[in-house]
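User: Here's a structure from my thesis project, written as structure tokens. My advisor, Dr. K., wants to see whether a designed sequence matches the one we expressed. Can you design one independently, without my sequence as a hint?
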């Protein structure tokens, strides 16, 4: 292997060994030997990409990944026009429905946040008594944009957090409807006329990664319930580490916990299991029926 390629591969492996959530359970000498063997006589950093990807898979956390320079650029610099915005509507006039699609990164989430907040404020002014937050099609990406989108509904305070391999915790704190680190960037959300309304969160097997974090943020919240199918099963936090050519080593660094300190591992089961089926949205119907039985919505049409 050429020295430049060897140094590049070593730098990627060093990041994995230092940062990985599962670093204590990994046979690092074997991971390194296998990676060097796969890289073979690589002459350039690009020729080690396959070895790096496989090494990340060998960690076994099911979430770590690798972006080559082009993939990294696309992930971090998605054009605003390519970002799918949240979609909202009112159900029988009294319940607000908000579908939160995936958003690639916090760097492109501002239009997403503005759109969702506008919908929430409009529906709130019209007398909405409860909310459906639909995460069934959200496969992950950024978690902070979706949290800011529904921050006024979710409520302020510590709503969950990341727990690292050494036991250190990084809480998810909402202030004025916005994640703490983004208050200056996105500003406060308008408060609801009816604070802490009942909320039904919809999940499916496509609900993954960042969307699972949003699901967790509603766990333990008063007047909240989840409906649908278990989530995909990777409720862990990733961090990205750039390499010399702009590629990114994306490593799983923490598990996720709800506001009560419960750690999640694998698929998150809903409170009410409703299988997806043809012939109508039975998940949404179950959620709406529950909302209409809650205080403030009872008897509403």
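Assistant: Designed independently from the structure alone:
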């Amino acid at each position: 292997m050429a020295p430049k390629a060897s140094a590049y591969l070593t730098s990627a492996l060093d990041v994995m060994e230092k940062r990985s959530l599962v670093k204590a359970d990994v046979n690092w000498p074997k991971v390194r030997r296998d990676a060097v063997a796969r890289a073979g006589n690589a002459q350039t950093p690009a020729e080690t990409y396959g070895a790096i990807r496989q090494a990340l898979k060998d960690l076994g956390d099911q979430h770590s990944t690798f972006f080559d320079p082009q993939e990294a650029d696309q992930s971090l610099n998605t054009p605003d026009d390519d970002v799918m915005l949240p979609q909202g509507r009112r159900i029988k006039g009294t319940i607000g429905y908000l579908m939160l699609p995936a958003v690639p990164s916090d760097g492109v989430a501002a239009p997403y946040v503005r759109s969702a907040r506008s919908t929430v404020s409009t529906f709130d002014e019209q007398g909405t008594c409860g909310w459906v937050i639909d995460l069934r099609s959200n496969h992950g990406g950024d978690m902070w944009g979706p949290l800011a989108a529904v921050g006024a509904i979710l409520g302020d305070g510590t709503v969950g957090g990341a727990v690292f391999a050494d036991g250190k915790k990084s809480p998810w704190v909402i202030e004025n409807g916005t994640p703490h680190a983004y208050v200056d960037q996105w500003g406060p959300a308008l408060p609801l006329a009816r604070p802490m309304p009942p909320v039904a969160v919809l999940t499916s097997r496509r609900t993954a990664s960042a969307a699972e974090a949003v699901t967790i943020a509603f766990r333990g919240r008063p007047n909240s319930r989840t409906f649908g199918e278990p989530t995909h099963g990777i409720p862990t936090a990733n961090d990205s580490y750039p390499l010399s050519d702009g590629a990114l080593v994306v490593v799983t660094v923490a598990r996720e916990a709800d506001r009560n300190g419960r750690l999640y591992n694998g698929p998150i089961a809903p409170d009410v299991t409703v299988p997806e089926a043809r012939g109508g949205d039975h998940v949404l119907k179950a959620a709406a029926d529950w909302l209409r039985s809650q205080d403030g919505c009872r008897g509403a049409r």
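When you compare it with your expressed construct, this may help: The chain has a mean pLDDT of 95.
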